[in-house]
Amino acid sequence: MKITANHVTMLRIVCLPLPCYLMYGGAWERTAALALFVVLGLTDYLDGIMARRDGSTPLGRLLDPIADKIFLAVTFVPLLHLGILPVWIVWPIFLREFLVTELRRFMTGRETGLKVTELAKLKTTLQMTGFGLILFNATFPDKGVSIALLLMAIVASGVAWLILRLRRRDVHPRIKKALLWAGIGLVIILPCSAGCTNIIYGIVLVAITLLSGWQYIRTGFPICVGKGARSLLSLAASLLLPLSALALVKPEQPASVLVIVILSLEFAVQGLDMWARQEGFADISGHKRRFIIPVAFLPLLYGMLTGSDTTSLFILAAFVSSLAYAIYDFVLHRKLVSDGMF
């Protein structure tokens, strides 16, 4: 059997729970998690090369962005759950991801002339790099270790740049950006503690993430508004379940681990629903907004009425709701997936 880009992408998704689990261990486990994340991150480039060589498939165009977003869920939610980053840094990153995907649904079938910027292309790479630096700083608070790592990155990027220049070849933009971001990271960490450095890194990542989605928001939001109040309510309802669950993550709360699965499932069904819409299938996401989401929020409503803490119960209800809809969605569109050339 020939190994395709889609196989590599699926392998990346299937393997992501292992390094996520290791993040909850000690220094050696976290180091192993970082190493695995690097290897899995490199498969993102590998499947891109294979797709360009063999030709992309509809399923591949669905899986690749979903894999990137699941990667985001299994890396940044644990940072929040472990108390390494605060919710006001993590939450806007996921707001951008869910919002842009929903707005793209409103732009389906329209000629908007929307072009992907270089920042949008590099966003995922920068998020992965930023996550690695933040986890490394949290694992090894001694700045000397992180400084040595950044210096090695600068030297490696500088040597690659010099070799290409001596051979009179063009320097790939990513080498230049790797040199730039490693230098910025070094400048930030030198005067700051590990905790302060992580907050600054997080703020930089939020700024990059939001800027990378600005063109989608600027183009898609007026289209959504133009369709009336019902479309705006539909947009808000689509974001409500995953972002509410994320906002209620508490450090060391066992149920909060389920938020990783909730976000991953929501990313998957978002992509599948948009693909189905593009292929002319009926949009079934309305069933979720009208029936499933209200049921998931019943524990929170009960907690408000009784004054009790029902956060864990809500997260459990959100998990069951997301899982139920994902199963329904994939069963309903199984032919679309199977015909997408795995």
Chart the SSEs and their pairings.
Blueprint: H1 5-15, H2 17-22, H3 27-54, H4 58-81, H5 87-106, H6 118-139, H7 143-166, H8 173-189, H9 194-212, H10 214-226, H11 229-247, H12 258-278, H13 285-296, H14 298-306, H15 311-332, H16 334-338
Helix pairs in contact: 1-3, 1-4, 3-6, 4-5, 4-6, 4-12, 5-9, 5-10, 5-11, 5-12, 6-9, 7-8, 11-12, 11-13, 12-15, 13-15, 14-15
Defining key terms:
342 residues; mainly alpha; 0% strand
Summarize the model shown.
The chain has helices spanning 5-15, 17-22, 27-54, 58-81, 87-106, 118-139, 143-166, 173-189, 194-212, 214-226, 229-247, 258-278, 285-296, 298-306, 311-332, 334-338.
3D architecture notes:
By secondary structure, this protein is mainly alpha-helical. The chain contains 16 helices and no strands. The protein has one domain. 35% of the residues are buried. Helix 3 (27-54) packs antiparallel against helix 6, helix 4 (58-81) runs antiparallel to helix 12 (258-278) and helix 14 packs antiparallel against helix 15. The mean pLDDT is 84. The chain has helices spanning 5-15, 17-22, 27-54, 58-81, 87-106, 118-139, 143-166, 173-189, 194-212, 214-226, 229-247, 258-278, 285-296, 298-306, 311-332, 334-338.
